[in-house]
Design a protein that fits this description.
This protein is mostly beta strands. Helices cover 0% and strands 58% of the residues. The strands form eight sheets. It has a four-stranded antiparallel β-sheet, with no helix packed on it. Strands 4-5-6-7 form a four-stranded antiparallel β-sheet, with no helix packed on it.
Length: 370
């Protein structure tokens, strides 16, 4: 159910990747001495430079990506001062029962987990030995290449998977006139979802249990528009009065959340259900919903500027009709800043991207209701 607006970068092209069930209402900042969540650092795959979560299932299994201990060399530096640099491989991971497992690749250097269903199957992407990225499924130590809509030379990436094993994502087309297209894959068959009238590309960002796919694409005016694909029909969700809208996540009840420009050019969060888009207001300057559970509680990232004029990006939760900063709901003195919440399940567990406030290294955190 989770969609990744922290979208997969595939060969230089953007590929557009619960709390309420427990009745828990997060505490206000003043009550943070009694935190709403306990936190678990999920670790890394051998090197602490990068560890980022993406999705969580009902069993609390988590997927994402992390730097590994393995390295390779590249040529780097300005043209007149070329040198050799060492880089660490980045692989997708599965966190389950307290252990972090490397998901591997399709013969290349990189992979990432973007979403996980209740059977523990991870959808994401993996590099071929050629360096081209393909949408992939990871399960039981096996990596399955889902291919692309343009053969082995086209790239692709999966951003969502449901419990039936249907996968949503995007594929790119090689060549200068390429472009990209959203897809849904069912029983090994990848189907392109097309583009909006007059547009040049589309990308899928989520799928629910009914096989409804959400995404974003451009229209004839080059505006970004959110869409839902259901029963073979793709519908533009409209906007809150401005030109642009992006669909971020969809739950199994068909409730969609995202963000849109208003007529005054402000960015507001919206919910969409049964053909109606509802303005949920603004939270700081920009707010991006990333995941939603079946109770309608959603999480994501917000950007703003504090009272000292310093910009910040923080993880948030929306429940009970209000937004809250997740940093106010965890134990004090963790040493980390929660910068983005990327997944939430129906038990209220949340996965967040965190940054060490001392050395700036990323970490994957699991938040569990206290």
């Amino acid at each position: 159910m989770r969609s990744s607006l922290k979208l997969l970068l595939i060969t230089g092209s953007l590929v557009a990747l619960s709390l309420g069930a427990a009745g828990l209402v997060p505490l206000a900042a003043a009550d943070a001495a009694t935190p709403a969540y306990t936190i678990t650092n999920l670790g890394n795959l051998g090197y602490p430079q990068l560890s980022e979560p993406a999705g969580i299932n009902s069993a609390g299994q988590v997927t994402g990506e992390s730097t590994t201990a393995a390295t390779f060399t590249i040529t780097c530096g300005p043209p007149k001062h070329r040198t050799t640099c060492t880089e660490h491989l980045i692989h997708g991971y599965l966190y389950s029962a307290g252990a972090l497992t490397d998901l591997g690749t399709l013969g290349g250097k990189y992979s990432a987990g973007a979403a996980i269903n209740d059977s523990g199957t991870v959808a994401g992407y993996a590099d071929l030995s050629s360096g081209i990225a393909h949408a992939a499924l990871f399960h039981g130590g096996t990596v399955t290449d889902l291919g692309s809509l343009s053969g082995p030379t086209g790239s692709s990436g999966a951003t969502a998977i449901n419990d039936l094993g249907q996968v949503a994502g995007s594929t790119t087309y090689p060549g200068s006139g390429g472009g990209q297209e959203a897809f849904v894959e069912t029983n090994g068959v990848m189907t392109g979802l097309g583009i909006l009238p007059g547009g040049t590309g589309s990308a899928a960002t989520g799928i629910n249990a009914s096989g409804e796919v959400i995404g974003v694409g451009d229209n004839a005016a080059s505006d970004e528009r959110a869409f839902v694909y259901s029963n073979g029909v793709k519908t533009d969700l409209g906007t809150l009065g401005g030109p642009n809208a992006v669909a971020g996540a969809i739950n199994d009840n068909g409730l969609i959340v995202g963000y849109s420009q208003t007529a005054s050019d402000a960015d507001h969060v919206f919910s969409y259900s049964n053909g109606t888009m509802t303005d949920l207001g603004a939270y700081n300057i920009d707010t991006v919903p990333e995941a939603i559970n079946d109770s309608g509680v959603f999480v994501g990232q917000t950007y703003g500027v504090n009272s000292n004029g310093t910009p910040f990006t923080d993880a948030f939760i929306y429940t009970g009709g209000k937004f809250e900063d997740l940093n106010t709901l965890i134990p004090a003195g963790s040493g980390y800043v929660l910068t983005n919440a990327t997944g939430i399940n129906n038990s209220g567990q949340i996965v967040v991207d965190a940054v060490n406030s001392t050395n700036g290294q990323n970490a994957s955190f699991l938040l569990t209701p206290a």
